[in-house]
Write a structure and sequence with these properties.
Length: 160
């Protein structure tokens, strides 16, 4: 059996919280597709090309993980990748309401696609890309939250 899953997100930029979910998923599924959403409405700091490139670098040790950007609905991308599993990460209870709504909407749009929630290691459960960007813009060193190469790129972008 070839078990495949799609982990979609904006990843602006990838954090150790995202990577923890990717590592967990890669141990369970034969192939994990990381779908990088363009998310124009969120006005990402990094272009989709930059986000894909940072993710490729950060996941080089995970041989069954593939990174690709996508536009439009997550369920349509899941169908294109021929998977019926969408993975989402849960941090705190605060994530739950939005994630629950989205999972139910996706189920209404496509009955045969299942959303699986995974929890990070508790040492990453407070991490968010948004918080990290704010911290860097205030001069913090975020090397313990994101890979060193990502921390460097954040510093360059946010000190302009
Ligand atoms: P999106 O725009 O889809 O919310 P994100 O890049 O912010 O994109 O997050 C992608 C997924 O990863 C979401 O399911 C989010 O809840 C999850 N996630 C983000 N940070 C963490 C973390 N520190 N621990 C666990 N899951 C996380």
């Amino acid at each position: 059996m070839n078990r495949k899953a799609l982990y979609p997100g904006t990843f602006d930029p990838v954090t150790y919280g995202h990577l923890d979910i990717m590592e967990r998923a890669s141990r369970i599924y034969d192939c994990v597709f990381i779908g990088v959403a363009h998310s124009k409405e969120k006005k990402p700091l990094f272009s989709v090309k930059e986000r894909v490139s940072m993710l490729k670098n950060a996941t080089r040790h995970l041989k069954n993980v593939e990174i690709e950007d996508f536009k439009g609905l997550v369920i349509n991308h899941a169908k294109r990748k021929k998977t019926c599993v969408i993975i989402r990460g849960l941090r705190m209870i605060s994530d739950f309401e939005f994630e629950f709504q989205m999972a139910l909407t996706n189920r209404k749009l496509s009955e045969d696609i299942e959303t699986i929630f995974m929890m990070t290691n508790d040492s990453y459960s407070y991490l968010s890309s948004k918080l990290i960007k704010e911290a860097v813009s205030l001069g913090a060193d975020v090397k313990s939250f994101v890979p060193a190469s990502v921390a460097k790129k954040l510093k360059i972008k946010l000190s302009k």
